[in-house]
Backbone:
């Protein structure tokens, strides 16, 4: 599907399409609906531009959320579709950012609960003319004082935000409204965040580690901790307050160092002081995604497809350059032609589709939520490659490229990355191991 801005449909026309899709599940109708909300996805993605992720990745994740919203939307519920879709788009981008993030972060439910508590505290402060007590906060939020106290204490640990991060949008439905008091007693962190936190804890004093462990992991109050360690309650309170401040400083210092290192590497690459490394996101010749990054994203997409039970197609595109092109190398370099082919394909597929260069003359195109239409997409891509004309000049006839395209579908053909690539490669008679080991020609090298 090519995202072309054609006639803008009216709300009534869109609603009719949505109702028709709910009844038929026709992918062509879903594509029409998705194309009407391209601006919505891009608008939502721009809110997260400060999160140190590329705009294309954020937009792609947004389109995944949009497609999910079309699949799940019930026209009979009386909710406006654009409002419903925005919730899914924001959620998909947030999940992506949480998965990609490296520093410790609050669980989503605790993050939203903290935002709600902040609003309650600000309203009470204005009404009372002073800072509210824990009891007053608990009454408004319909929680126990103990739960309020624990949330306030965890802020010292979890008040670590990305230096460039976008503030979360306060609009839209709040999942924290549905949270019961029992969930606050012993919240659980993802395994990755636990590792980060426990590593930071090891840099504290032994007594600080023990007190924080008892308070936050075992749920003991200050009196119980004081009795177990034979120290005063005041000293326990002092240790918790200062220990969490130390943790926050450790986490911020580590994050600042990581960000500085990443920015230094990006700056050096931009000035040409470093050659492109295997983990670089873009291939320097074609400016589509590099082989390593494409394979990483393919693994992520297959993992998501397994969890959410949707289909994925993969195209392997082996580009054949004009046979007599060698005579015109001085006028038109091979890497220039490959760059034009890559950019032509990228401009004419959906923004959620992912294009990467996996071989010297070979591209791979990942198509989420695509199955039956993969053959039609392959035919269109073949025509796009054939549309790239090489003008040798001096009155000579234009030269054109061609392509062989292999197709593999998840989960019908294979359940993992290698299986899909092997299936697609076998259709165009390419040896996969040789393709993956093939060094990619870099921009500016002789063809």
Residues:
């Amino acid at each position: 599907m090519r995202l072309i801005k054609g006639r803008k449909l009216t709300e009534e026309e869109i609603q009719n399409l949505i109702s028709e899709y709910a009844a038929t599940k026709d992918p062509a109708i879903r594509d029409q609906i998705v194309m009407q909300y391209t601006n919505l996805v891009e608008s939502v993605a721009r809110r997260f531009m400060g999160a140190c992720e590329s705009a294309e990745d954020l937009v792609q994740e947004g389109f995944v959320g949009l497609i999910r919203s079309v699949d799940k939307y019930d026209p009979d519920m009386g909710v406006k579709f654009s409002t419903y879709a925005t919730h899914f788009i924001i959620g998909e981008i947030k999940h992506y950012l949480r998965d990609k993030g490296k520093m410790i972060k609050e669980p989503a439910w605790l993050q939203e609960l903290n935002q709600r508590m902040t609003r309650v505290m600000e309203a009470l402060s204005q009404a009372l003319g002073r800072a509210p007590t824990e009891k007053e906060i608990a009454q408004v939020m319909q929680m126990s004082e103990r739960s309020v106290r624990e949330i306030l204490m965890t802020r010292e640990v979890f008040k670590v935000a990305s230096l460039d991060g976008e503030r979360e949008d306060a609009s839209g439905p709040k999942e924290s409204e549905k949270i019961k008091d029992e969930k606050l007693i012993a919240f659980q962190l993802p395994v990755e965040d636990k590792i980060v936190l426990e590593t930071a804890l090891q840099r504290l004093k032994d007594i600080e580690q023990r007190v924080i462990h008892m308070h936050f992991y075992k749920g003991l109050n200050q009196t119980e901790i004081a009795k177990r360690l034979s120290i005063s309650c005041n000293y326990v309170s002092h240790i918790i307050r200062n220990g969490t401040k130390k943790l926050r400083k450790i986490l911020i210092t580590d994050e600042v160092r990581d960000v500085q290192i990443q920015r230094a590497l990006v700056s050096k690459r931009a000035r040409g002081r470093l050659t492109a490394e295997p983990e670089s996101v873009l291939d320097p010749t074609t400016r589509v995604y590099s082989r390593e990054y494409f394979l990483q994203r393919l693994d992520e997409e297959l993992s998501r497809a397994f969890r959410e039970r949707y289909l994925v197609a993969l195209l392997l595109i082996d580009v054949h350059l004009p046979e007599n092109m060698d005579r015109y190398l001085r006028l038109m370099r091979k890497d220039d032609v490959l760059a034009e082919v890559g950019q032509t394909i990228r401009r004419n597929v959906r923004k959620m589709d992912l294009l990467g260069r996996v071989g010297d003359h070979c591209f791979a195109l990942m198509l989420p939520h695509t199955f039956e239409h993969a053959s039609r997409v392959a035919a269109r891509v073949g025509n796009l490659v054939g549309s790239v004309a090489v003008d040798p000049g001096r009155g000579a006839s234009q030269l054109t490229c061609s392509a062989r395209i292999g197709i593999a579908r998840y989960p019908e053909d294979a359940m993992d990355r290698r299986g899909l690539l092997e299936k697609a490669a076998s259709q165009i008679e390419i040896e996969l191991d040789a393709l993956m080991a093939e060094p990619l020609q870099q921009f500016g090298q002789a063809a």
In short: The mean pLDDT is 76. The first helix runs from residue 11 to 24. DSSP finds 17 helices and six strands in the chain. The domain at 108-252 is CATH 1.10.10.10 (Arc Repressor Mutant, subunit A).
